[in-house]
Design a protein that fits this description.
The protein is mainly α and about 325 residues long. The chain has 2 domains: about 110 residues, DNA polymerase, domain 1 (Orthogonal Bundle), CATH 1.10.150; about 180 residues, Intergrase catalytic core (hpI Integrase, Chain A, Orthogonal Bundle), CATH 1.10.443.10. It has 14 helices and 3 strands. Helix 6 runs antiparallel to helix 7 and helix 7 packs across helix 11.
Length: about 325
């Protein structure tokens, strides 16, 4: 994927293309471009005598190795303060931008060898408070499934409840990402083995095991899914009303409208269904953390470990099950 933009300097284009060749996702590359474009604009602004110029209006087309070599660690912290004071960026947002800057300067120093020193090597990321993932309870999950199975979706011209039920069933049982769900092709499913191949982050394939609820929901949907010549994408499993592969936005809207009907879940997003699947598997399935990592397709076990903090009852039960829990020494 070649990165072209009239105002994007060659040195940034080269970096983005480098990441594209590493099979980084399009979303990741888009974030790198957005973060680094704004960062370079601010660096140019720092070098100007006239500070009345808006940062957003500055051109970075002429940014080169000489300019980047002059940037030091203080400049980087100046930028982070600017983000916090001007845009009130949250620590998580600033942490992402720190990661983008670190990656860029590491490339410039180690791979491209265009700068003598790496000023971002000592750039610290803001401390992040641990946030537990939001998720549906088991009762809310069953209510959601009942809601979409038994009621015609609100404000919709066509009754796509069988399709919507199949999508939500996959989310809640398999913990897949939104991008993975919409990219499913019918030939990705091995019905004789109850297996599904999905394409996750970085275009990495992984196998998802389908339980009976998933197989039944998919089979029910295939009975009503159009297969005529008007279907634009014959391979896609889930189709929109226009008979083309369903979009991210459409799925998000469907989930949002159905969640509005579930008490306590009105403000949750589609991604929270993935959290729900992971949490339910961990709470009720006695799933090993490594197995859960494999199921979710996490690159790092640290990402998966957040689910071990969700179920306090398991922690309590573990303490209570200690063989010394009821031991009382003999008193003399």
């Amino acid at each position: 994927m070649l990165i072209n933009n009239d105002d994007t300097p060659k040195i940034l284009r080269d970096y983005l293309n480098y990441n594209s060749n590493l099979n980084k996702s399009k979303n990741t590359i888009h974030e790198y471009k957005y973060d680094l474009t704004n960062f370079l604009k601010y660096m140019k602004w720092l070098s100007l005598n006239d500070k009345n110029v808006e940062v957003s209006e500055i051109s970075i087309k002429d940014v080169d190795a000489k300019f980047l070599n002059a940037i030091d660690l203080n400049d980087l912290y100046d930028y982070m303060t600017y983000l916090k004071d001007t845009f009130n960026d949250k620590p998580t947002t600033r942490a992402r931008k720190v990661a983008s800057i670190r990656s860029f300067f590491k490339y410039l120093h180690v791979k491209a060898k265009l700068i003598d020193d790496n000023p971002a090597k000592e750039l610290e990321s803001p401390k992040l408070g641990k946030r537990l993932p939001k998720y549906l309870t088991l009762e809310q999950s069953t209510s959601l499934l009942d809601q979409v199975k038994n009621k015609k979706p609100i404000g919709r011209q066509h009754d796509n409840s069988i399709r919507d039920y199949a999508m939500i069933t996959l989310f809640l049982n398999c913990g897949m990402r939104l991008s993975e769900l919409i990219s499913i092709n019918i030939n990705h499913i091995k019905f004789d083995e109850n297996l599904l191949t999905v394409v996750g982050k970085g275009d990495k394939e992984r196998t998802v095991y389908l339980n009976k609820a998933c197989i039944d929901a998919i089979n029910d949907y295939l009975k009503v899914r159009p297969f005529d010549d008007d279907v634009i994408d014959q391979e896609a499993l889930f189709l929109s009303e226009r008979k083309q592969r369903i979009s991210r936005r459409s799925v998000q809207h469907i989930i949002k409208e159905n969640l509005k009907q579930i008490s306590g879940a009105e403000n949750l997003s589609t991604h929270k269904l993935r959290h729900t699947a992971a949490t339910l598997m961990y709470q009720y399935g006695n799933v090993d953390i490594r197995a859960l990592q494999e199921i979710l397709g996490h690159e790092s076990i640290a990402t998966t470990e957040i689910y071990t903090h969700v179920d306090n009852s398991q922690i309590r039960d573990a303490v209570e099950s200690n063989p010394l829990a009821n031991y009382k020494p003999d008193t003399q």
